[in-house]
């Protein structure tokens, strides 16, 4: 098993403490000396392949979970926070950042949270006008950002909900039986809930009337949307005790954040019920992640399929590590998760060279891109535009794009890699994460200078940009 230098002291210590073992007893069980274990736990020495295998054998853990992408996400978020000009000339090395994220992840999270609060307050102050001042509309920290980060840092996988949803799906025969037909019967027989059409002109996807135990659904919504809303109602009726306990453990700063998280957790259960883990993972492998074929097989939308692929992080049976994002026409990332090395910017718009923007120019098509980030990592990225509307010709349509991709090492698992020259480095488009932290000096699409670079202004010379990056 080939691995690089892997420093996982925090995880090894947590595993030992959860086993209630002393260092001496733990070291003896995995066949190493106590001094070596002490050095591993303090990240003074990397863990070897033989130790990893011993940990997996003795404690029934997934080796991949010891070297998962959570540290990459934390490292990326911390690096972006420390790139802010408010910190002046201080520029930590990659080794310093790794020491913090590996040895003191709690401290790293706290620093990122502090930076987020600073950014929010700065942006609020910058956008205040007389009306806002008169109305005292300073606002609280953004609950949606807090909840989005909660899912981001748990790897977008909620084990208890996923397993419970899969058990229920198995008992109902999903996906062999159509969830759109099974769930109405289940809701009525188990909970006395009737499925009814919403009233004409009622602009909703779902409305549940507690008194009459009636679930009203928009009859003009796609079948996949109505199925998802029924699965959501099952979560609300059967899983709220567990979900409440999960939210209590997160210690969100505001009640609003907690309520939004409850919605997110119910959504998670709904997706896991309609697209049960083992069946979905097997289909992804069989169909080579063909989104359209998977959507047809499971009666789901392309977005639901892509989103579910980003949650396949169950220890021991993980799917291909993918990144997933949803972007509006202004370039704002409204939904994001990455189990791959690629991490999305937390502030600002997405890189304009990323093919997700091109998706708006080619509606109805799935477009492909081979891309390389400034750190030399290479990716296969696919993107397509999604249009959602209900209510006929005069009803407004929501348009956005979704992107899904993986590191090029996994590209052969995707049908979208067929015919692409993965070995030709020139075939990869140079993209970044966000202009404010991108290191590329000669990008013609740059919107703003990088935060940490000095600029040179030559009054006698003008290139594509009105400045040069030192």
Can you describe this structure?
With 470 residues, this protein is an alpha+beta fold. It has four domains: 9-66, lambda repressor-like DNA-binding domains (434 Repressor (Amino-terminal Domain)), CATH 1.10.260; 70-139, no CATH class; 159-309, no CATH class; 322-439, no CATH class. The protein contains 18 helices and eleven strands. It has helices at residues 9-18, 23-30, 34-41, 49-59, 63-66, 70-82, 94-103, 105-127, 130-135, 143-153, 159-172, 179-191, 223-238, 240-250, 255-274, 277-286, 291-298, 302-309, and strands spanning 194-197, 206-209, 214-217, 322-327, 333-338, 367-372, 378-389, 397-407, 429-430, 455-456, 468-469. The strands form three sheets. The chain has a six-stranded mixed β-sheet with strand order 5-4-8-7-6-9. Helix 14 (240-250) crosses helix 15. The longest helix has 23 residues, at 105-127. It is globular, with a radius of gyration of 24 Å.
A few lines on this structure:
This protein is an alpha+beta fold. It has helices at residues 9-18, 23-30, 34-41, 49-59, 63-66, 70-82, 94-103, 105-127, 130-135, 143-153, 159-172, 179-191, 223-238, 240-250, 255-274, 277-286, 291-298, 302-309, and strands at 194-197, 206-209, 214-217, 322-327, 333-338, 367-372, 378-389, 397-407, 429-430, 455-456, 468-469. It folds into 4 domains: 9-66, 434 Repressor (Amino-terminal Domain); 70-139, no CATH class; 159-309, no CATH class; 322-439, no CATH class.
């Amino acid at each position: 098993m080939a691995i690089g230098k892997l420093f996982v002291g925090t995880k090894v210590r947590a595993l030992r403490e959860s086993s209630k073992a002393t260092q001496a007893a733990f070291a003896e069980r995995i066949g190493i000396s106590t001094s070596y274990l002490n050095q591993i736990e303090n990240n003074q020495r990397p863990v070897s392949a033989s130790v990893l295998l011993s940990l997996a054998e003795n404690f029934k853990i997934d080796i991949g979970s010891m070297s998962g992408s959570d540290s990459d996400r934390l490292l990326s978020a911390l690096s972006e926070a420390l790139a802010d000009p408010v910190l002046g000339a201080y520029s930590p090395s990659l080794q310093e950042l790794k020491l913090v994220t590996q040895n003191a992840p709690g401290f790293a999270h706290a620093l990122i949270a502090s930076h987020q609060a600073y950014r929010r307050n700065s942006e609020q102050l910058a956008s205040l006008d007389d009306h806002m001042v008169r109305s005292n509309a300073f606002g609280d920290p953004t609950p949606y950002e807090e909840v989005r980060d909660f899912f981001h840092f748990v790897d977008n996988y909620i084990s208890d909900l996923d397993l419970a949803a899969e058990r229920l799906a198995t008992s109902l025969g999903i996906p062999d039986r159509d969830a759109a037909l099974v769930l109405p019967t289940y809701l009525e027989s188990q909970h006395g809930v009737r499925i009814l059409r919403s009233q004409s002109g009622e602009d909703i996807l779902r409305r549940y009337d507690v008194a009459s135990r009636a679930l009203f659904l928009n009859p003009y919504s796609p079948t996949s949307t109505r199925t998802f809303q029924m699965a959501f109602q099952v979560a609300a009726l059967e899983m709220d005790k567990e979900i409440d306990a999960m939210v209590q453990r997160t210690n969100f700063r505001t009640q609003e954040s907690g309520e939004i998280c409850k919605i997110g957790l119910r959504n998670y259960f709904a997706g896991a019920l309609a697209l049960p883990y083992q069946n979905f993972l097997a289909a992804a492998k069989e169909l080579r992640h063909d989104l359209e074929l998977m959507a047809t097989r499971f009666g789901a939308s392309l977005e639901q399929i892509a989103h579910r692929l980003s949650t396949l992080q169950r220890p021991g049976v993980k799917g291909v590590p993918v990144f997933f994002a949803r972007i509006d026409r202004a370039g704002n990332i409204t939904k994001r998760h990455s189990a791959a090395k690629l991490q999305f910017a937390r502030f600002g718009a997405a890189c304009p060279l990323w093919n997700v923007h091109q998706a708006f120019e080619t509606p109805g098509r799935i477009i492909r891109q081979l891309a390389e980030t400034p750190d030399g990592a290479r990716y296969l990225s696919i993107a397509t535009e999604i249009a959602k509307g209900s209510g006929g010709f005069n009803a407004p349509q929501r348009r956005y794009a979704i992107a899904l991709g993986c590191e090029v090492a996994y590209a052969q698992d995707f049908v979208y890699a067929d015919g692409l020259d993965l070995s030709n480095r020139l075939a990869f488009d140079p993209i970044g994460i966000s202009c404010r932290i991108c290191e590329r000096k000669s990008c013609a699409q740059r919107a703003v200078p990088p935060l940490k670079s000095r600029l040179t202004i030559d009054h006698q010379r003008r290139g594509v940009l009105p400045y040069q990056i030192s």
